[in-house]
Amino acid sequence: MRLVVLGGGESGVGTAILGKKKGYDVFLSDFGKIKNNYKEVLLLHKIKFEDEKHTEDLILNANVVMKSPGIPDKVPIIKKIKEKNIPIVSEIEFTNQFTDAVTIGITGSNGKTTTTMLTYHLLKQGGLNVGLAGNIGKSYAWQVSEGKYDSYVLELSSFQLDGIETYKPHIAIITNISPDHLDRYEYKYEKYIASKFRITMNQTEDDFLIYDADDEAIANWLKNNSTRAKLVPFSISKPLDFGAFLEENNIKINTTNENFDMPTSQLSLEGKHNVKNAMAAATVAQLLKIRKDTIRESLSDFQGVEHRLEKVLKIQNVQYINDSKATNVNATFFALDSMTTPTVWIVGGVDKGNDYTELLSLVNEKVKAIICLGIDNAKLIETFGGVVDVLVEASSMVEAVRQAYKIAEKGDTVLLSPACASFDLFENYEDRGRQFKQAVQNL
Predict the structure, then answer these.
(1) Can you give the residue range of the structural domain that contains 392?
(2) pLDDT (tens digit, 9 = 90+) per residue, 77-136?
(3) What is the DSSP pairing of strand 102-107 with strand 151-155?
(4) Among 166, 185, 214, 253, which is least packed, fewest CB within 10 Å?
(5) What is the pLDDT of residue 181?
């Protein structure tokens, strides 16, 4: 059996290692440059590979192709593979056949990284032998090839879910759905929503789907479609007979005979969106019978995720916050909503078809100045030019931070929450966040 892996990043290299271990004839091809550390791993495992090209003769003889989630369907090599009817799967789908581990799959437009990390923290503290993979950390395939864990918490993007056929998580979470990555879904929001709900398509009556009952897109899908999984809603706006909800600033979960409750004031993460993330993670822990005291402790000592509303430094009583992971409007909405002081907002980057108008009321209420950090800021200037007194442009992170330092006064917050992808000026959102932190530390 010949396995061809397209993409020499974390998921591609992990899949190649697992395929080799399971007896496949493996070839890995990357149209870009493979990083040296991954090349060394491939050489060590005696896996044949190429980079900066796709050699068709070595690819189109595959029995199965695993493509990395970042490769769109419209690239020529994918079209040719499809013409030959060679099955294309995702890393998650390929790996799934080689493990009996229980998986908790987490998707959503926002909050999935925090919810994934928080769920993993709860289960680990609860004594489960659990791994963390998917869109985060060491690849699922790589970890399964080492066979160390009985269960996994997987962060799953819509692109990863597009490549599944038989995979099913025992517990699925959909944190929320808002327009994102529409460029990959022919700008059709319903296609993107359907992609997210693939997470539950193979679930049975013995499985669970945890979801935000306050989310319009989720509620509409559930009204018009069905899943066999047991539905477990969470809400911060209404009491629920079954699920997780708020009652006088207490989180209540009544999914088992053992009811759980905890004051929101004891959560380590601030903001309404994090109350929801905590509800979703705690519901998983409840379903997997983690002790209530352990859940409470873990929710109150969780450290948060880098580049997600990460407090960097306070300088002259101005708080600098790194929210570089906010790559869409909805994520930035949560960030601005959680601001309690006048805010200098650094925004901009590669726009994925953003509609900034939904931020207008928050900007009006919370933002005193905007710094546009991108190559093309025309849309931002058009939307917010008349709303704030100060709007300036910056062509580098250092310049943006220096301008923010000049504008901000005692008691203000400087918030980097770009609402855009980072590829115009940075390698990725992590690089953008690290450059922000570095620039703040150098003030």
Answers:
(1) 310-441
(2) 999 999 999 999 999 999 999 999 999 999 998 888 889 999 999 999 999 999 999 988
(3) parallel
(4) 166
(5) 63
CATH code (residue 215): 3.40.1190.10
Interval 213-238: pLDDT, tens:
999 999 999 999 999 999 999 999 99
**Quick one: pLDDT at residue 387?**
92
Q: Is residue 411 marked as binding?
A: no
At 40, which CATH number?
3.40.50.720
CA atoms within 13 A on the CB side of 433: 21
Q: Residues near 357 by Cβ (< 8 Å), separated by ≥ 6? A: 383
Cβ–Cβ under 8 Å, residues 396 and 371 = no
- Considering the domain architecture, whether residues 356 and 261 belong to the same structural domain is answered as no
195 labelled ligand-binding: no
Residue 109 labeled ligand binder: yes
Closest CA to 109 of 140, 74, 171, 155: 155
Q: Are 318 and 230 in the same domain?
A: no
- Please check whether residue 323 is in contact with residue 429, taking contact to mean a CB–CB distance below 8 angstroms: no
Q: What's the chain's average pLDDT?
A: 93
Q: What CA–CA distance (Å, rounded) separates 49 from 43?
A: 9
Classify strands 367-373 and 343-347 as parallel, antiparallel or unpaired: parallel
**Measured between alpha carbons, how far is 383 from 191 in angstroms, rounded to an integer?**
27
Q: How many residues does the chain have?
A: 443
Give the per-residue SS3 of 224-286: HCCCCCEEEEEECCCCCCCCEEEECCEEEECCCCCCEEEEHHHCCCCCHHHHHHHHHHHHHHH
391 neighbors 367 (Cβ within 8 angstroms):
no
Tokens of 430: 């992590």
CA separation for the pair 390, 357 (Å, rounded): 18
317 has binding-site annotation? no
The answer to whether 84 touches 56, Cβ cutoff 8 Å, is: no
Measured between alpha carbons, how far is 399 from 348 in angstroms, rounded to an integer? 14
| Residue 105 assigned ligand-binding role | no
Q: Is 238 annotated as a binding residue?
A: no
The amino acid at 91? E
Number of domains in the chain: 3
Q: Final residue of a domain: which of 89, 123, 151?
A: 89
DSSP E strand boundaries for 15-71? 25-30, 48-51, 64-67
User: Are 337 and 399 found together in one domain?
Assistant: yes
Q: What amino acid occupies position 41?
A: V
Is 108 assigned to a binding site? Answer: yes
Residues 104 and 61 in one domain: no
